[in-house]
Amino acid sequence: MKEDKIKNKVHLKYSGKLMRHWYWCVLLPLLLLGLTAAVLYVDTLAGLIVGGFTAAILLTVVLLDLYYRPRVLAELVDFANQYHSVEHEMLKQFVIPHGLIQMDGKVLWMNDKLLELTGRKESGHRNITALFPQFDLSCLPTREDGGSTELTYNDKTYRVCMRWIMLDEMLRDLPGVEAVEEGNSVVELCFFDITELNSLKIENFEQKPIVGLIYMDNYDEVADSVEDVRRSMLEALIDRRITKYVSAMGGLIKKLEKDKYLLVMNRKGLAGMEEDRFSVLEDVKAVNIGNTINMTISIGVGLNNPDYTQNYEAARGAIEMALARGGDQVVIKDHEKLTFFGGKTQRAERNTRVRARVKAQALRELINTKDRIIVMGHKITDIDSLGASVGVCRAAREAGKAAHIVLGDINSAIRPWVTALQGEGHDEKLFLTHEQAIEMTNQNTVVVVVDTNRPAMVECEEILYLTKTIVVLDHHRQGTDQIENASLSYIEPSASSACEMIAEILQYYDDEIRLKPIEADSIYAGIIVDTNNFVAKTGMRTFEAAAFLRRNGADMTRVRKYFRNDMETYKARAEAVRHAEAFMGCYAISVCPSEGLESPTVIGAQAANELLNIIGVKASFVLTEFNQKIYISARAIDEVNVQIIMEQLGGGGHMNIAGAQLDNVSIDEARIKLKEVLTQMTKEGAI
Fold first, then answer.
1. Separation CA 591–CA 571 (nearest Å)
2. 65-101 tens-digit pLDDT
3. Which of 511 and 683 is assigned the larger pLDDT?
4. What is the rounded distance in angstroms from the CA atom of residue 418 to the CA atom of residue 431?
5. 8 A C-beta contact, residue 293 and residue 222
6. Which of 171-175, 565-569, 576-580, 643-647 is predicted with the least confidence, judged by mean pLDDT?
7. What is the rounded distance in angstroms from the CA atom of residue 673 to the CA atom of residue 676?
8. Contact predicate 117/191, CB 8 Å
9. Where are the beta strands (DSSP E) in 44-184?
């Protein structure tokens, strides 16, 4: 029995730093033995006395060690146990909610604060998603670097910091527990209340300053349309509506000129304006005291820059973009990002031709300073692009300069015109391929871009970077991407077509200029196509341009013959109209078959025009698959701005004529995306 008791006795010994603490017990007797030897050498009696003391000290140290060793070790064990209990209690009462869960979300342990947060009395074995429904198990870390996530619980926001803990090594040293498989792990969670921090962040964000500019688009035209005695009243009413709207949003407004305002406010006020989609645009248009033309305003806003000066410069860029897009809209510039609101009104036609005359003279000066002029339109050239290019070439040849037009694939819509132009005594090099244009272009070349202002849409983008002299002549509204550093830019969204703009420029370019009949026909045809036979976007200047072309030999009968289609083309257009779908009761959506057609996108555009003849259709959209892309032709009369719809799909255009191209989607997917955009924009009140 005694032997068994000895076997079961726990044997402990010092180790580590505690063992080194007892080295003095060995060192001291060794020093005393050395002292004893020295004394014996000097005096025998004295040495014996010192030796006796040394033996007594050595015996005392041994007895003390034998007596206190088990008691010290017992005290250490007791302290370690108490320390562990205190440590566990401190963790349990930690002020931050803290817990452990398994990788499947099962809760293993929670401290008091986490129990208090969840309203439970004990940890239990519930899943973390049952306690916090917003918690996503997919965000659990699978590596030692941990992670974090945010969730909302009881109207408070928490940042949950997570740490991945491996249990294999811990379980290996724990008696009575054995891991069934490798890779056992748990996740430590710490919940930090960041509600107040987020509130301060939001407050700080809302107080950030923004600078804006408000311009009246057509002040002079509206003022001229009312009697002199009512002019001041009209100005006062508009000024009051703008000031009242800005003040209601917590902003400060200062009138700079009769038709310009400076706006200063914070982001909270801007958010309020965005929420009601800048209703001041419609409020100003509603002012009517006998004026025959409605006043429209444009707003440019700059934000997220370090100071007011840079915000003001951004606002200037934004207002210029708003005016270039036709006015009656808001442009918000956040560094390089542009956001658009409004733009529902067709830009009023300007009766004055001062701008056209100035641009014509500037174009003439540029042409005279260079040896060669290369003209190009947009990809998949149409007759408006071709006609405008022909007009520019005629202007260049009148100045004795070599002029060429860049063409890619010649589609069926322009092939008769190209053949006729080449057969009327023109130089064989009137039309160039991409490779020929790149070879000819140098710093002594003027590159003229017509009917587009987007670099990605031009026929041959490479030549834009081979010369510094670039001219842009376009009637489409500007988008976020545009041809940069143009020597001359004439963008007039109020014009019906690029051919109308060129016809005006030619009248001021040279009084003696004379067009060949085929040249006049092609420019006239461009106006015909873009106005849908003088039905859409037709103004006084449109008819004046047509009259100029008629005087130069344009023949309506010849033009009509050029527009005739073959039987397959006519059937495809009729098929697109026959299968049109009425979406939301006012949008006609259809698909134009492309099999067997050389230019299905042109047929799709024609079908979209025909769908507008149906009663109740506000806008039409025809989708066409061509060259592994989906082309959307959008048309409207005056109730819907199809340009802003197409911009949501990466396209653009005019208020009533626009389009977009979609890559890597099928016809059905493109139709779904179009419907989603229409639904969302209608819900937001954008259209």
1. 13
2. 777 767 666 666 666 666 566 666 777 777 888 888 8
3. 683
4. 9
5. yes
6. 171-175
7. 5
8. yes
9. 98-102, 107-110, 147-153, 156-166
Displacement of CA 669 from its chain's centroid (Å): 22
Give how far Cα 27 sits from Cα of 30, 58, 154, Å: 5, 11, 67
* 354-562 fold: inorganic pyrophosphatase (n-terminal core) (3.90.1640)
Could you report the per-residue pLDDT of 481-529, keeping only the tens digit for each?
Answer: 788 888 998 988 888 899 999 999 999 888 788 899 999 999 999 999 8
Domain 98-202 has CATH 3.30.450.20: yes
Residues counted in the chain: 687
Rounded (5°) CA angle 188-193-197: 135
How far apart, in whole angstroms, are the C-alpha atoms of residue 299 and residue 321? 10
CB 666 within 8 A of CB 657: no
Task: Give residue for tokens 């830019």.
Answer: 489
**Nearest Cα residue to 355 out of 178, 513, 495:** 495
Q: Are 394 and 419 in contact (CB under 8 A)?
A: no
Domain 209-342 has CATH 3.30.70.270: yes
Torsion angles phi and psi, residue 217, rounded to 5: -65, -40
- pTM value > 0.90: no
Helix (H) or strand (E) holding 113: helix 112-118
Q: Say which amino acid occupies 92.
A: K
Q: Dig out the tokens for 500 from the structure.
A: 């109308």
Instruction: Name, of 18-27, 479-488, 590-599, the range with top average pLDDT.
Output: 590-599
What lies within 8 Å, CB to CB, of 552 at 6+ separation is 514, 515, 517, 519, 520
Output the CA torsion sign for 472, 476, 479, 481.
Answer: negative
3-state class percentages of the chain: helix first, strand second, coil last, to nearest 5: 45, 20, 35
**Contact (CB, 8 A) for 553 and 515:** yes
**Which residues, other chains included, contact 476 with Cβ-Cβ below 8 Å and sequence gap of 6+?**
451, 452, 453, 491, 493, 652, 653, 654
Q: Which residues pair with residue 619 across a beta bridge?
A: 587, 636
d(CA 393, CA 446): 11
- Helices 600-611, 567-578: inter-axial angle, 10-degree rounding: 50
123/364 Cα distance (integer angstroms): 85
Q: Which two tokens stand for residue 315?
A: 């606002």
> Which of 3.40.50.720, 2.140.10.10, 3.10.310.30, 2.60.210.10 would CATH assign to domain 573-684?
3.10.310.30
Structure tokens at 364: 């003439």
* Alpha-carbon gap, residue 644 to 641, rounded angstroms: 6
Q: How far is CA 583 from CA 54, 251, 621, 682, in A?
A: 111, 41, 10, 12
Q: 7-11, 73-77, 415-419, 576-580: which range is least confident on average?
A: 7-11
The CA distance from 656 to 110, in Å, is: 64
